[in-house]
Amino acid sequence: MTSTGNLLIVFEDHIIRQESVRYGIELAHRMKCMIFLLMLLSDKFSMDKEKQNQIDLMVHSIQESGIMASAKIRCGDKASELVKFLAESPAFTMVIWGSEKWFSSGKIPKLTQHWLAKVIDTIECPIVTPTLKHQFREA
User: Fold this and answer.
1) What is d(CA 17, CA 136) in angstroms, rounded to the nearest whole number?
2) Which end of the chain is less congested by CB atoms within 10 angstroms, N or C?
């Protein structure tokens, strides 16, 4: 598959929302995009072999679905690490938020206290947070 764009799925502190990953895979198939996974951590000591394996399995699963994928882990100030990653990477068609549900549940006031609020205006592509429709939510 020839890639026509890039999708970025951002996670923080090992919180991985599977609906974001599924959404990214489905969108990448439709748009013929490559998926980049970015795990942002406050410190490098929170990363262990089990958590690294989880990310590696996610990349492998995406690749098995026919989508090119890669992953990076960045440690430090999350806002700064995201901006640095975006500066070092090819342009993204879309950023998919892959962590906490509050970002997608209409609780926007919490966003102003979140590190993402520092950089959201500098991100030039859309940021989306997939949610399951009520009738399709898993019990």
Assistant:
1) 15
2) C
**pLDDT profile of the chain (139 residues), mean per 10:** 81 89 94 95 79 90 96 92 92 88 50 74 81 54
Best CA proximity match to 67, nearest among 23, 111, 102: 23
Spell out a b/e string for 48-67, using b for 16 or more CB atoms within 10 Å of the CB, else e: eeeeeeebeebbeebeeeeb
CA atoms within a 13 Å half-sphere pointing along the CA-CB vector of 21: 22
Residue 77 to residues 44, 45, 53, 80, 114, Cα–Cα distance (Å): 11, 14, 23, 5, 12
DSSP-assigned letter for residue 114 = S
The structure tokens 């923080």 sit at 12
